[in-house]
Amino acid sequence: MQVNTPTQEAERLEALRQYKVLDTPAERSYDDITSLAAFICEVPIALISLVDAERQWFKSKVGLVAQETSRDVSFCAHAILSPAIMIVQDASGDERFASNPLVTGEPGIRFYAGVPLISPGGQPLGTLCVIDRKPRTLNAYQIQALEALARQVVMQLELQRVSAQLAEALEKMELMAGLVPICSYCKGIRNDQGYWSTVESFIQQYSDVGFTHGVCDHCMKRHFPEVAEILLPNLESNDITSDE
Fold first, then answer.
1. Domains located in the chain, CATH noted
2. pLDDT at 213 over 80
3. What is the pLDDT of residues 41-92, one digit of tens each?
4. What's this model's pTM, rounded to 2 decimal places?
5. Could you tell me if 46 and 63 are in contact, meaning their C-beta atoms sit under 8 angstroms apart?
6. How far apart are CA 47 and CA 136, in angstroms?
7. Which residues neighbour 215 within 8 Å (Cβ) at sequence distance 6 or greater?
8. How far apart are CA 38 and CA 56, in angstroms?
9. Is 213:220 a contact under the CB 8 Å cutoff?
10. CA neighbours within 13 Å on the CB side: how many for 127?
């Protein structure tokens, strides 16, 4: 069955990219969560699945060898269409999945339960899901635990994202705290590659600061005296300092 695409798919994919987690090595912090999910839900397979543009990629997996599958056959691609947990008690009797190769072939999925991983900005990144090779369901306690573990996955992703941004900001601060070569005449700045640029270009390169331009009172008086007489009648000539 054709999988629908979430609304604002471009924004969702951009949110996923910002975590810089796709194709990274396995990590104990995530593997502990999938192990707990499999244990609590009493299933042989548990996954942290991130739904990319054309694939679902597994950041962590228990009971499965594959590292990714096509998005076209992904149960998780269906699960991210709603913020609530998606439970399929018997995939072989569900018209959405009965002919799915993951059902008719390996790993022989029958039961699936997936909780969407929702970013703080409201974007579904993927799921924490549990899978069984036989039909079944989850009790209320297991559903509650799986939802709580899904929130922990998002918290872990956020922690790593913020930590990376903090490290990058500190690197920029160290750069700005160093000696910056400035031209004595035009006030241009030389970067690490030896190229000269404006102060605005240099700061924008190493920070998120934006600029608007205007004319200060002293420069107004010096360069546009006629305008200054009208706009700045109280500015005395002796307030002007020379930079020559």
1. 9-165 (3.30.450.40), 189-239 (no CATH)
2. no
3. 999 999 999 999 999 999 999 999 999 999 999 999 999 999 999 999 999 9
4. 0.70
5. yes
6. 18
7. 223, 224
8. 19
9. no
10. 27
**How many angstroms separate the CA atoms of 102 and 72, rounded?**
11
Q: How far apart are CA 50 and CA 107, in angstroms?
A: 19
pLDDT at 243 (0 to 100): 45
Cβ proximity of 127 and 80 under 8 Å:
yes
Tokens (6 digits) for 100: 């799915």
The neighbouring-strand residues paired with 50 are 57, 126
- Residue count (the chain): 244
The DSSP secondary structure of the chain, one letter per residue, reads -PPPPPTTHHHHHHHHHHTT-TTPPP-HHHHHHHHHHHHHHT-SEEEEEEE-SSEEEEEEEES---SEEEGGG-HHHHHTTSSS-EEES-GGG-TTTTT-HHHHSTT---EEEEEEEE-TTS-EEEEEEEEESS-----HHHHHHHHHHHHHHHHHHHHHHHHHHHHHHHHHHHHHHS---B-TTT--EE-TTS-EE-HHHHHHHHS---------HHHHHHH-HHHHHHH-TT--GGG-----
